[in-house]
Amino acid sequence: MATATATAPALQAETEAARGVLGSFLRDFSAPLGPEELPPWSPQGSGALSRAEARGELAELAGGLLAARNAPPLLTAALIHAATDEVLQTDLSTFEKSGVEEEQGDQQRLTLLDGVSLQRYFFNKLRDICCEWQKQLPLLRPLKRFLFVSIHAIRNSRRKMEDRHVSLLEFNQLFGMMDDIDRAYFAVFDGHGGVDAANYAATHLHVNMALHDEFLKNPSEALKCSFQQTDEMFLLKAKRERLRNGTTGVCALIVGNRLHIAWLGDSQVMLVRQGKAVTLMEPHKPEREDERTRIEALGGYVTYLDCWRVNGTLAVSRAIGDIYQKPYVSGSADVDSFELTGSEDYLVLACDGFFDTVKPCDVVDLVLDHLMKNKGDGLKTAERLVAAAKENGSSDNITVIVVFLRDPQDILADFLRDPKSLVISEGAQDSPFNFFSSETNNQSDSQTTRSA
């Protein structure tokens, strides 16, 4: 597939669209917030937070505010980076709350920041930047690589939706990375016992990863450490706010010609290459011999109560959160990395609500069938996969992210030319697998479909 380049008219159109969004934002918020005014987002985003939580929380709030105004993702990421950087380079001691809390298990003291006053200051900074950029829009570096992404999530038969997902094609822009290495990040978090841990992981894990000292040199190590750090941060929050819930998680980070994956629990990521389902990981379940041995060595136990459970409660053996099941339910993720060069079709990230009822080999058939019926249009691919899980009896929350690594129309065309060449092989173990080279780009019209 040929390298995509932006034409002058296209760049001009994008620039005008960005200025339009900035103008709309400034019309909605014509003046800075006063000392007692509340920021224009829900009260849920107004609690106390630690310094380590500030960047993720502020970025999440701004992202929602800008998305509601249809801001382009590239502009949104650049605005968030500029505003959070300016705020976090100031002296945050003026936002400290008078009370402090002792960290669990040691004598260090955790100073909390007042969420409302910090967010008010952040919002006014964001507004100031919008004013500056409307007059002189900085150069927004477009993505060199384009991935087509399809996402669908449903509550299904459950009382609450406890899944969360993240799709960050503008990873470099969000963190101000100016090198020539393309990066993209995707994640699915499946909460249990509540949604707090899943929300927290979706907000903070990629931030912890990007800020890790080893991120540029060793992304896999940074990804692994970010799980542990996010778990430790959430446990402090759980202690002070008396939260008992947890979340599994699976992440895929694309850095140049490398794919890095990490996971806790039973959410999974799979790859399809030339029509073959390739197993990349093994979920963390209590019945795994190594997991059972680890749990029992710590003094816990694994028992069968409709399924295998840790200490008779959780059906997963690793997760972020679950404060009362630590250390038996570990917050240490497994990671793996693969060299990528060019023949992969797509990645699928999903929670157990999907993979418990749809086998990897069936994913290949379902995607091809969908592409054939829709003439290569991959927009609603994730929706078709979610429907299949529900048809197969899943009553759980279901979230599916499909990241096409090649144009869906090219995948369909290859199949139609030579169906026999795309032999489906469940659990095929032929890594290292290929990816696209740096000279190849995928479809630029990325689409996201979400459903609560």
From TrEMBL:
<dbReference type="InterPro" id="IPR015655">
    <property type="entry name" value="PP2C"/>
</dbReference>
<dbReference type="GO" id="GO:0051496">
    <property type="term" value="P:positive regulation of stress fiber assembly"/>
</dbReference>
<dbReference type="GO" id="GO:0032991">
    <property type="term" value="C:protein-containing complex"/>
</dbReference>
<dbReference type="InterPro" id="IPR036457">
    <property type="entry name" value="PPM-type-like_dom_sf"/>
</dbReference>
<dbReference type="GO" id="GO:0005634">
    <property type="term" value="C:nucleus"/>
</dbReference>
<dbReference type="GO" id="GO:0051224">
    <property type="term" value="P:negative regulation of protein transport"/>
</dbReference>
<dbReference type="GO" id="GO:0035556">
    <property type="term" value="P:intracellular signal transduction"/>
</dbReference>
<dbReference type="Pfam" id="PF00481">
    <property type="entry name" value="PP2C"/>
</dbReference>
<dbReference type="GO" id="GO:0045892">
    <property type="term" value="P:negative regulation of DNA-templated transcription"/>
</dbReference>
<dbReference type="GO" id="GO:0050921">
    <property type="term" value="P:positive regulation of chemotaxis"/>
</dbReference>
<keyword id="KW-0460">Magnesium</keyword>
<dbReference type="GO" id="GO:0005829">
    <property type="term" value="C:cytosol"/>
</dbReference>
<dbReference type="GO" id="GO:0006915">
    <property type="term" value="P:apoptotic process"/>
</dbReference>
<comment type="subunit">
    <text>Associates with FEM1B.</text>
</comment>
<dbReference type="GO" id="GO:2000048">
    <property type="term" value="P:negative regulation of cell-cell adhesion mediated by cadherin"/>
</dbReference>
<comment type="similarity">
    <text>Belongs to the PP2C family.</text>
</comment>
<dbReference type="GO" id="GO:0051894">
    <property type="term" value="P:positive regulation of focal adhesion assembly"/>
</dbReference>
<keyword id="KW-0378">Hydrolase</keyword>
<keyword id="KW-0904">Protein phosphatase</keyword>
<dbReference type="GO" id="GO:0071466">
    <property type="term" value="P:cellular response to xenobiotic stimulus"/>
</dbReference>
<keyword id="KW-0479">Metal-binding</keyword>
<dbReference type="GO" id="GO:0010634">
    <property type="term" value="P:positive regulation of epithelial cell migration"/>
</dbReference>
<keyword id="KW-0464">Manganese</keyword>
<keyword id="KW-0053">Apoptosis</keyword>
<keyword id="KW-0597">Phosphoprotein</keyword>
<dbReference type="InterPro" id="IPR001932">
    <property type="entry name" value="PPM-type_phosphatase-like_dom"/>
</dbReference>
<dbReference type="InterPro" id="IPR000222">
    <property type="entry name" value="PP2C_BS"/>
</dbReference>
<protein>
    <recommendedName>
        <fullName>Protein phosphatase 1F</fullName>
        <ecNumber>3.1.3.16</ecNumber>
    </recommendedName>
</protein>
<dbReference type="GO" id="GO:0010628">
    <property type="term" value="P:positive regulation of gene expression"/>
</dbReference>
<dbReference type="GO" id="GO:0033192">
    <property type="term" value="F:calmodulin-dependent protein phosphatase activity"/>
</dbReference>
<dbReference type="GO" id="GO:0046872">
    <property type="term" value="F:metal ion binding"/>
</dbReference>
<feature type="domain" description="PPM-type phosphatase">
    <location>
        <begin position="148"/>
        <end position="405"/>
    </location>
</feature>
<dbReference type="GO" id="GO:0008138">
    <property type="term" value="F:protein tyrosine/serine/threonine phosphatase activity"/>
</dbReference>
<comment type="function">
    <text>Dephosphorylates and concomitantly deactivates CaM-kinase II activated upon autophosphorylation, and CaM-kinases IV and I activated upon phosphorylation by CaM-kinase kinase. Promotes apoptosis.</text>
</comment>
<dbReference type="GO" id="GO:0045927">
    <property type="term" value="P:positive regulation of growth"/>
</dbReference>
